[in-house]
């Protein structure tokens, strides 16, 4: 059994990022899919104390470019239309879709993870990082 620290990095104020969480793995290997699932579950547990902050934080990390474009066509972009209290299975699914679309990248074991079903071996004492990717303005 191993505990892995998962950090999230995204543009914007530090208070709007998902919290750093410890994820307990059954062995020393896992898949990106399982690591994301466990991390999102832990993030939600940590954020439940403030439902509005929780919703805003999860949206900032996992709202995709397609979501933004679709909402922009209506004339307004809302961070979420979902209830303030996150539905854990839906948030896990949304995070999996966001990873598959390239909305955020996962870095573990000294490299970037390319696929949800890719097996990874986190290094002891080295955090896993979920990095929110954003397009640069003007290009």
Features:
36% helix; 139 residues; 4 helices; 22% strand; two-stranded antiparallel sheet; 5-stranded mixed sheet; single chain; alpha+beta
Describe the structure.
There is one protein chain. This protein is of the alpha+beta class. It has one domain. The protein has helices at about 30-45, 50-60, 65-70, 90-100, and strands at about 1-10, 20-25, 30, 105-110, 110-115, 120, 130. It starts with a strand and ends in a 7-residue tail after the last strand. The mean pLDDT is about 85.
TL;DR of this structure?
This protein is of the alpha+beta class and 139 residues long. The protein contains four helices and seven strands; from the N terminus they run βββααααββββ.
Structural class: alpha+beta
- What count of structural domains? 1
- Report, as a whole number of angstroms, the end-to-end distance: 44 Å
Rg on CA atoms, Å:
15 Å
Helical segment tally?
4
Shape: globular
**In terms of per-residue confidence, which ranges show pLDDT below 50 for 5 or more consecutive residues?**
none
Our estimate of the beta-strand percent is 15-25%
Q: How would you characterize the largest beta sheet?
A: 5 strands, mixed
Percent of residues in helices comes to 25-40%
Helices and strands, in order, run as EEEHHHHEEEE
According to DSSP, the number of beta strands is 7
- Average pLDDT works out at 83
Trace the largest sheet across and list its strands. Answer: 2-1-7-4-5
Oligomeric state of the chains? single chain
């Amino acid at each position: 059994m191993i505990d892995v620290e998962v950090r999230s990095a995204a543009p914007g104020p530090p208070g709007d990022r998902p919290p750093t969480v410890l994820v307990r793995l059954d062995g020393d290997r896992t898949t990106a899919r399982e690591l994301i699932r466990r991390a999102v579950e832990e993030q939600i547990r940590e954020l439940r104390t403030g439902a509005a902050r929780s919703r805003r934080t999860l949206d900032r990390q996992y709202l995709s470019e397609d979501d933004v474009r679709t909402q922009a066509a209506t004339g307004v972009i809302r961070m979420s239309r979902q209830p303030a209290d996150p539905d854990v299975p839906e948030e896990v699914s949304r995070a999996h879709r966001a990873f598959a679309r390239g909305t955020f990248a996962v870095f573990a074991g000294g490299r970037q993870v390319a696929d949800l079903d890719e097996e990874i071996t986190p290094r002891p004492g080295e955090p896993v990082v979920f990095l929110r990717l954003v397009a640069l303005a003007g290009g």
